[in-house]
Amino acid sequence: MAAARSMSGCRTAALVLWTCLLGLGLASAAPLPGRTNGTVLERKWETLFSRSYLGLSGGRSELSWESDYLQGIKRVRRLYCNVGIGFHLQVAPGGRIGGSHSENQYSLIEISTVERGVISLFGVRSEMFVAMNRRGRLYGTRVFNDECKFKEKLLPNNYNAYESFVYKGFYIALSKHGRVKRGNRASPAMTVTHFLPRL
Q: Are 17 and 27 spatial neighbours (Cβ–Cβ below 8 Å)?
């Protein structure tokens, strides 16, 4: 008798839950057109499960994320260097690279992933890539080449350092006056190479 009451109570609870879900539009009484197995409710539960299980908003697996690490991601940021009075890296018309204390149209930089851990920096307004030559000097170019590639390294202070992909040990750096320093005369131990990507 008690078992029958318990079973009846479970059926009632299930019916109430199903009715609420129908009312909220989270479940469908019939399968979707063109779909022979599964309902909206099943897909919702599947999505919720994958999100909670994987801890990801899109439901992609960790393995897939690792193998596709940052591929094709583009971010438009300003690269702020907290040296002197503080400067933003900018790509001025004509390809001149330097620092500007105030934010401006030339300090908007598109950071694009070229390959795992390697990025390019593109001046949105000037339409030029930041590049570094063999003497450690920065310059702007409209033609993408290997000198436009930089290794993006996250530092312990949450700033980034950008090392030339071609010339090992050469870093993008700004002086305390906002002028570009030679890449072969700077290292990640120096604040002049520390940049914070920000909106």
A: no
